[in-house]
Every structure is written in C-alpha cells, then in structure tokens.
C-alpha cells in the first residue's frame, strides 16, 4: 500500500480515486482488522511513518487508529453490558464487570443485563416481542441484523469517540 515510495513524490498521488488507506481507515472499526493493522504498523520501518507524518490522509488514519486503540486496546472486549430495559439506570442493578448480557429467549432481539431488568421490561416487551421476532427474521434475510456482540463493539467505539471528544474539546468561548 505504501509503495512505490519515490522520495520526491506524494506517496498517495498515484493511487486510484478510492484511496486504499481511506478504505482501511474505515475498516479499522472492526477489532480483528484493528489488531492486524496495529501489529503491521509496529513492523513498518520507522522511515515510512516519519516520511508520512504530515500527510493529511496518514494523519486521519492515525487519528482514527488512536480512537480504536482507546476502544479496543486496553479494555476487555465484548464485555459491554447491553440492556434494552429503558429503566435500566433507575434499577440500581449491580453486576460484575464480566457479566454477559442475556437475550430474550423468544425473540432473540432484546437483550438484558440482568434478570431484574428483563422482568421489569417485560411489561413493555411482551407487546413487541412477537413483532421483533418477525423483524429479526427479515433483518437477517436482508443482512441488516446487528448481533448483540456487534452492538457491544460499536458501543465501545462510540464511548471511545465521546471520551476522545471530551478530552480534546475546547470551548470556543475560551478562545475569545
Ligand atoms: Zn439492565
Ligand atoms: Zn422478546
């Protein structure tokens, strides 16, 4: 991807309209690809990142890689506790960090952090459970179904984006 490197030319200049690095940047959201790219980056000769260090496409790539690192690099993966109980935050439910969420066994669509949340939500969910079962079949057929694992992964990434945003936020009023 980074060849040929003519020292005098833009390393991305000869690439076709769809930038391979741009495509790779987008795919980094997937932990398996992030792992592979992260490992490959450690094996790059230092001269390459140094040479690319001010290139906008490279900077965007590294920036997104840092956010993925925040999401996937240290915290345990697939441990995000999902809960479809809208009253979850008021339930005072405590569970160990490694607790896995359990899905509704009838529709396999709703997921809960605990039996308490599932029981509490049943008042609402019982009226939608049948419809969600059907929806899930159609979504799977259309390849539009997100597994609970993928939902957890995307939530982890969203959390990393928000944390990064908060860390780097500068109030425009402070600049006045
Ligand atoms: Zn819950
Ligand atoms: Zn259900």
From TrEMBL:
Keyword annotations from UniProtKB, A to Z: Metal-binding, Zinc, Zinc-finger
MF terms (GO), sorted A to Z: zinc ion binding
Gene3D superfamilies according to UniProt: 6.10.140.2220
Residues that span the membrane, as ranges: none
Domain MYND-type: 80-129
Protein name: MYND-type domain-containing protein
Organism name: Ephemerocybe angulata
Taxon lineage: Eukaryota, Fungi, Dikarya, Basidiomycota, Agaricomycotina
């Amino acid at each position: 991807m980074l060849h040929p490197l003519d020292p005098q030319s833009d390393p991305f200049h000869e690439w076709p309209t769809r930038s391979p690095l741009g495509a790779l940047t987008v795919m980094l959201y997937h932990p398996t690809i992030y792992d592979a790219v992260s490992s490959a980056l450690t094996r790059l000769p230092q001269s390459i990142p140094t040479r690319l260090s001010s290139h906008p496409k490279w900077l965007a790539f590294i920036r997104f890689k840092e956010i993925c690192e925040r999401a996937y690099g240290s915290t345990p993966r697939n441990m995000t506790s999902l809960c479809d109980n809208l009253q979850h935050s008021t339930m005072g439910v405590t569970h160990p960090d490694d607790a896995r969420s359990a899905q509704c066994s009838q529709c396999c669509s709703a997921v809960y952090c605990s039996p308490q949340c599932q029981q509490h939500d049943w008042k609402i969910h019982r009226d939608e459970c049948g419809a969600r079962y059907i929806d899930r079949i159609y979504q799977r057929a259309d390849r539009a179904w997100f597994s609970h694992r993928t939902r957890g992964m995307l939530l982890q990434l969203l959390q990393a984006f928000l944390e990064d945003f908060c860390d780097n936020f500068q109030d425009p009023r402070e600049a006045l």
